């Protein structure tokens, strides 16, 4: 699979439950822009057949190499980022995993049930990255219990492996130089943005500014046949800056990411 095939299949899958991403993408194209992706992100459970460590070889199979590692202590997450070895225009990939053993025992028990259902050989090819949930649909009760301790865990229980967001590269837009202008356009068009820590995460001095929509809301049928509106996925916007050494910053920032995670809070 080429990275280009990988990202088109991923986008198809992502926009089915994230219609706002398709509409915003179209909005930019209608304004004469060509939208390039800065990065995409995935979430997973550690100590499972789909742990970060088990998934990584599939990113390597499409030419990606890890180049940074991150820890989010209060959210019980760790993450790594990947870039394409030869094609600098290929989107970067941010892969995080939940440190399940750090959650209270009753959450571990719920998640343990899901993990036990994942085939030990679930990861065979890169298309595992849009396989969704590899366990039976959770009950609404389980979802709410998980959400009390980890919004990430609740989200992952219902959405599974799929692109959690795509990210518009503001650097590649022609008519929008600043992230503030992009945010103003989105607000004018009626989109709800993530306001945790302010609309813009990061500063030019930290070389990465990011903003994101709040995730789309979809109607979800839980096991036991109860239905509830829950967050699906969101769209992000990133502007990178050149460092004093003349090189464009191409990694991620824990302080920004920590707030971007909240885009799927309910
Ligand atoms: C990832 C949040 C971090 C970034 O660009 O810093 C992130 C997530 O919500 O799964 O995407
Ligand atoms: Ni992101």
TrEMBL record:
A matching Pfam family: HGLS
Q: Which CDD domains match?
A: VOC_like
In terms of domain of life, where is this protein from?
Answer: Bacteria
Write the record's keywords in alphabetical order, separated by commas: Dioxygenase, Iron, Oxidoreductase
Which InterPro entries does this chain map to? HGLS (IPR009770)
Q: What class of enzyme is it?
A: oxidoreductase
EC numbers on record: 1.13.11.93
Q: Which cofactor does it need?
A: Fe(2+)
Family membership: Belongs to the 2-oxoadipate dioxygenase/decarboxylase family.
**Name the UniProt record assigns to this protein:** 2-oxoadipate dioxygenase/decarboxylase
Which species is the source of this protein? Marinomonas colpomeniae
């Amino acid at each position: 699979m080429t990275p280009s095939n990988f990202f088109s299949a991923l986008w198809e899958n992502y926009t089915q439950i994230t219609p706002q991403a398709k509409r915003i993408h179209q909005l930019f194209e209608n304004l004469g822009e060509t939208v390039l992706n800065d990065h995409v992100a995935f979430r997973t459970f550690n100590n499972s057949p789909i742990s970060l460590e088990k998934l990584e070889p599939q990113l390597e199979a499409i030419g990606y190499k890890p180049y940074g590692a991150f820890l989010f202590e209060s959210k019980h997450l760790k993450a790594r980022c990947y870039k394409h070895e030869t094609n600098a225009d290929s989107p970067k990939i941010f892969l995080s995993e939940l440190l399940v053993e750090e959650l209270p025992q009753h959450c571990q028990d719920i998640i343990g049930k899901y993990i036990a259902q994942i085939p030990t050989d679930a990861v065979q090819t890169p298309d595992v990255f849009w396989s969704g949930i590899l366990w039976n649909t959770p009950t609404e009760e389980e979802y709410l219990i998980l959400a009390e301790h980890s919004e990430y865990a609740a989200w992952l229980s219902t959405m599974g492996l799929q692109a959690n967001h795509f990210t518009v590269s503001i650097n590649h837009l022609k008519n929008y130089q600043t992230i503030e202008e992009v945010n103003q356009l989105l607000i004018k068009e009626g989109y709800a943005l993530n306001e945790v820590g302010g609309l813009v995460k990061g500063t030019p001095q930290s070389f990465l500014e990011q903003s994101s929509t709040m995730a789309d809301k979809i109607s979800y049928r839980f096991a036991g046949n109860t239905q509830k509106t829950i967050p699906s996925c969101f769209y992000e916007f990133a502007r990178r800056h050149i460092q004093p050494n003349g090189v464009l910053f191409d990694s991620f920032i824990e302080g920004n990411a920590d707030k971007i995670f909240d885009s799927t809070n309910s």
